[in-house]
Amino acid sequence: MTSIPQTARTAWLLRVSATSAPQDPESFEQQRQLLRSVAGFDPDTRIWTAFIGEVNVRALEVLQQLYDSASRFGTEVRLEAVAAPPSWQGPVFHDENDLAALVVARSDQGRPLGQLHIA
Fold first, then answer.
1. 8 Å CB contact between 79 and 63
2. pLDDT of 32-78, one tens digit each?
3. CA contacts within 13 A on the Cβ side of 115
4. Is 82 exposed, middle or buried (0-12, 13-18, 19+ CB in 10 A)?
5. What pLDDT, on the 0 to 100 scale, is given for residue 117?
6. What whole-number distance in Å separates Cα of residue 92 and Cα of residue 88?
7. Which of 76, 80, 102, 114 is most buried (most C-beta within 10 Å)?
8. How many Å apart are CA 53 and CA 23, to the nearest integer?
9. Cross-strand partners of 72
10. Over the stretch 94-108, which tens digit does the pLDDT of each residue have?
């Protein structure tokens, strides 16, 4: 009896990034206070980044903080599906179709992720 080799399924993360507030030290400090608990900051690129591996309360908190920051400071938030690195220890998306549906939802009729239809 031969067995069919199992191919390794890719584990996916949603990378959420936000550009830094303007160079104004006061604005940057306000943004730092808002984001430091939900995202990491890369001083070389001046980008805040968080990774989401499941949609739960924490994920919604991360998204909300990043979008609040973008709203307050006029910065940009980006969502991107990325393969989880081997060192990643947190939850992951296993079905790229589910993750793709999440990413596509943000562009539904030009609405930001999480914004509901207005009747």
1. no
2. 999 999 999 999 999 999 999 988 899 989 999 998 988 898 888 88
3. 11
4. exposed
5. 47
6. 9
7. 102
8. 31
9. none
10. 876 666 566 555 545
User: For the chain, how big is the Rg over CA atoms in Å?
Assistant: 17
**Between helices 57-73 and 25-35, what is the axis angle to 10°?**
170
Nearest to 53 by CA among 108, 2, 14: 14
Give CA torsion, residues 84, 87, 90, 96, to 10 deg. 20
- CA dihedral (114, 64, 14, 119) in degrees, to 10, reads 0
For the domain spanning 12-110, the CATH number is 3.30.70
> What type of residue sits at position 45?
T
Instruction: Tell me the residue type at 11.
Output: A
User: Two tokens at 87?
Assistant: 């060192």
Q: In the block, which residue shows the tokens 């996916």?
A: 12
Instruction: Name all contacts of 86-89 with Cβ < 8 Å and 24+ positions apart.
Output: 88/11, 88/13, 88/51, 88/53
| pTM reported for the whole predicted model | 0.73
